[in-house]
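Notes from hallway chat w/ T.B., transcribed later so I don't forget. T.B. wanted the structure written out for a chain they're using in a teaching module, and asked if we could keep both sequence and structure tokens in one place. Agreed to drop them here.
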Amino acid sequence: MMKLSSIHNPDKIINYWKKEKVSVAFIIIFGFGFNSAAVLSPIYQGKLIDAIANEAKINKLIQLGLTFVGLIAMIQFMRYLKRLYIRRFANSTSATMRLMIYNNIMNKSLLELEDENTGSLMTKAVSDVELCVEGMRKFTTEIFDTGVLIATYFITMLFYDIKITILASLFVPIAMLIAEKLKAIIFKNVIAYRKHTSKVTGLTYDRIENAIIYRISGMEEMNQKEYKSYLSMVVGV
């Protein structure tokens, strides 16, 4: 059963990894194990195919086949455990973030809450937490599925052919530089999207709460136009 507890300095992302020490430890162990061993799968598959093509003895084929199947089973089991603990980390972090946000809202005075936008509060408690946790989960996953796996393949390929491996790797830093240039553009558009989403959420809540008042006062049509204009802004961001 998941045990929730508050953390110090909840605005620092690193503290959420520190809180889940056990899950993070298992993620590191099984992450390195899975992504380091993943390179063995194509190697032994190639050996098995070569043995079949060269008409090797049946005993050798059985040995290579059992070794290949055993490696696949071991690799997939470590993959399962890595994904399991990454998901446990994400679920626990999501619950902790929501706990901290709700505590923060509940401890605010009525005067402070009057200055807060309802849509902004709802976005923080639901959508922002989900996006933040998903980003943390993907970052944790990609450290191993991209970083460790690429390093393992690179080292392995160096043993096969140094020249071809280095030439093929020249395009990686170029792609990273292009991605770095696009980061600022993407970040700017994401911030604009979040602002408009918060506004639309607030307008939606306001329309639901004050629908009768807007209809009686004849403001319903104007309110509908304003709502549609903000919706189109969100779609266009």
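Follow-up for T.B.: The mean pLDDT is 80. Might be a good example for the class.
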